Amino acid sequence: RMSSVERVRVPGDNSCLFYAVGYLCEGAEASAELQTRLRKVVAEDATADEDRETRELFLEKSLEEYADWIQSEFHEGGEQEVLALTRHYKVRLGVVSVETLSVLTYGDSGRIGYLLYTGTHYDALVGACRLWDEADPLFEAACIDLARSHREAMAKRDASEIIFRLKCLGCGELCRDADEFKTHCDQVDHGDDFGYECEDIFHVTHDPSLVEFNDDDDDDESPRDAADLVV
Questions:
Q1: CA 111, CA 90: separation in Å to the nearest integer?
Q2: DSSP-derived 3-state class of residue 127
Q3: How far apart are the C-alpha atoms of 223 and 142, rounded to whole Å?
Q4: CB 42 within 8 A of CB 85
Q5: Which pLDDT score is estimated for 209?
Q6: Where are the alpha helices (DSSP H) in the chain?
Q7: CA gyration radius for the chain?
Q8: How far apart, in whole angstroms, are the C-alpha atoms of residue 222 and residue 230?
Q9: Structural contact between residues 49 and 58, judged by C-beta atoms closer than 8 angstroms
Q10: How do residues 191-215 score in pLDDT, each as one tens digit?
Q11: Is the C-alpha dihedral spanning 17, 23, 28, 29 positive or negative?
């Protein structure tokens, strides 16, 4: 029997990593205070590193520059920040990749928590608890299954994309290209004043006949309390 896993979604801004880890390790809700505090933790972890030269090679900037950079809410966290947070909380973090369908564990000791990484966004993954004493193969398998389901849903959504590139200035109709705009003009009466004018746009939507799109699958707009459950 496969273990249960719940995806605890966090806001899809540049602080998703800090929100997700804060939830796993503290049970904290996403907030400006949380992301500011954990960004400061990560910055101080870097500036306290005695092996300055090696750390700067990984960060590709001076420690002082990095400390300023990571404390900006406009910059995302990644692998280096995951490592710093494992040291701060004295835990391990298993990052479940949607792209590779694998679990990469960061940290050397302590309890372990899990993060879903879609390639652009982090969410927390929990089961019977937020942090486990030891890695549970059944729970990890459930996490990978959830990641697979997410990848399949995104593939269907991407395949259903419709991109409109022109907007008719006569009636506001959206058209995919010049040929579709011409057909539209031939078929629709816009009045004598219409000058066959359009404007360039870039509007993406989805074909509901190909996939039933759920807003919860959009990392940037999904609600905090939404959850996917695999049993």
A1: 8
A2: coil
A3: 22
A4: yes
A5: 59
A6: 16-26, 32-47, 52-59, 63-70, 79-89, 137-159, 178-187
A7: 23
A8: 18
A9: no
A10: 888 888 999 988 877 766 555 444 3
A11: positive
Q: Are 86 and 111 in contact (CB under 8 A)?
A: no
- Relative orientation angle of helices 79-89 and 32-47, to the nearest 10 degrees: 90
Confidence of residue 1 (pLDDT cuts 50, 70, 90): low
Please state, in angstroms and rounded to a whole number, the distance separating the CA atoms of residues 3 and 208. 32
Task: Give the three-state DSSP class for 133.
Answer: coil
Distant-in-sequence, close-in-space partners of 9: CB < 8 Å, separation ≥ 6: 123, 216, 222, 223, 224, 225, 226, 227
Average of per-residue pLDDT across 158-184: 88
Q: What are phi and psi of 201, to 5 degrees?
A: -140, 175
Position 207 scores a pLDDT of: 67
Nearest residue to 43 (alpha-carbon basis) of 28, 64, 62, 17: 64
Going by C-alpha positions, the residue among 104, 116, 156, 150 that lies closest to residue 23 is 116
